[in-house]
Amino acid sequence: MTDLNKRSLIKLAALTAVTSAALIGCGKKEEAPAPAAAPAPAPAAAAAPKAEPLKVAFAYVGPVGDGGWTFAHDNARKALEAEYGDKIKTSFVENVPESADAERVIRDLASQGNKIIFGTTFGYMEPMLKVAPDFKDVKFEHATGYKTAENMRTYDSRTYEGAYMAGVIAGSMTKTNTLGVVASIPIPEVIRNINSFTLGAQSVNPKVKTKVVWVNGWFDPPKETEAATSLINGGADVLMQNTDSPAVLKTAEEKGKRAFGWDSDMTAYGPKAHLASSVINWGPYYKKAVKDALDGTWTTGGVWWGVKEGAIDLVSIAPDVPAEAKAKIDTIKAGLKDGSFSIWKGPILGQDGKEVLAKDVVADDKFLGGIKFYVKGVEGKLPN
Question: Which of 278, 280, 303, 276 shows the shortest CA–CA distance to 292?
Fold first, then answer.
């Protein structure tokens, strides 16, 4: 083979190798780029702070263990806690006198951050009126009063309905036709209850008369006991009270007479003497008032609730009360609920025999709220 032929073969082999390398390079797959790192998750949004509970305070005129008025209010406070749980926080101050000291206590409660304050007795009306303008963001609620302000309203229970029903039983059970009432303070509320008790008794026994002893205080067991004893010594064999302790019922038990519980079921304090208890359930109103505050719908004004709204009832009627009297109580309750029965419907005569309510006239709340007279059948002089 000539040198020329050898050089041609070498050149051809070299070209073939270059071409093969090029073809191999073009056929190589490109590796996929490494995936980008995932972005860090955004920090979780901070949980909304838990709403602070609504602070609710009560000022009580007596001790929570009085068995009557304050006991009933405190039972309703506990019902509030059960209803609203951690949405509210309640507190109370007991034994707050109806004096200048009430203003100090109410002012302290407002300063402590309470946003709704219940003053549970008539004598707190003026102190609350003085404090209210200084705490515009606080809602003040006054029991049994009649004055309001921009941030103060009133609430009450128609205790006279319970007194009337108790009177029906008293008139059916008395043997001497003499009833006795241990009365607290001579304001329209108490006078109205004495009169209603008497009217109820007269509705079944026109011969009934009612004697009254005033103790000039809401909670004073020794004075209440003394007053009850005086009434029994004066011939009364059935007693009712408009005071806050069970002292009257206890006295009746000791002396073999009959009596009623007041504001709460007092059966246990004198089971042999007990005829029935006229009770107040403040729970429905307190739940409404606190709901109004929580919802932002609270407004000033006043309410007066009774049997119709579940605020007043006569309970634990004694087994020996005649069936006719029990049936009459049922009829009265039904009538008060549906509006077909009115306790204060004329003709009604005053103690002096003069007509205070004409025949078929039904007293309105203005009339009832201003009663300052005894009806016929109530003995003694009404204190100034």
Answer: 303
129 contacts 147 by C-beta, under 8 angstroms = yes
Contact 351, 373 (CB under 8 A): yes
Determine the Cα–Cα distance for residues 245 and 262; give it in Å rounded to an integer.
8
- Fold: same for 54-157+283-308 and 159-280+309-369: yes
Residue in 367, 377, 358 with CA at minimum distance from that of residue 192: 367
What is 159-280+309-369's CATH superfamily? Response regulator (3.40.50.2300)
Per-residue pLDDT of the chain (384 residues; tens, 9 = 90+): 434 343 343 344 433 443 443 333 333 333 444 444 555 555 555 566 778 999 999 999 999 999 999 999 999 999 999 999 999 999 999 999 999 999 999 999 999 999 999 999 999 999 999 999 999 999 999 999 999 999 999 999 999 999 999 999 999 999 999 999 999 999 999 999 999 999 999 999 999 999 999 999 999 999 999 999 999 999 999 999 999 999 999 999 999 999 999 999 999 999 999 999 999 999 999 999 999 999 999 999 999 999 999 999 999 999 999 999 999 999 999 999 999 999 999 999 999 999 999 999 999 999 999 999 999 999 999 998
Pairwise CA distance, residues 173 & 319, whole Å: 12
Give the global pTM.
Answer: 0.86
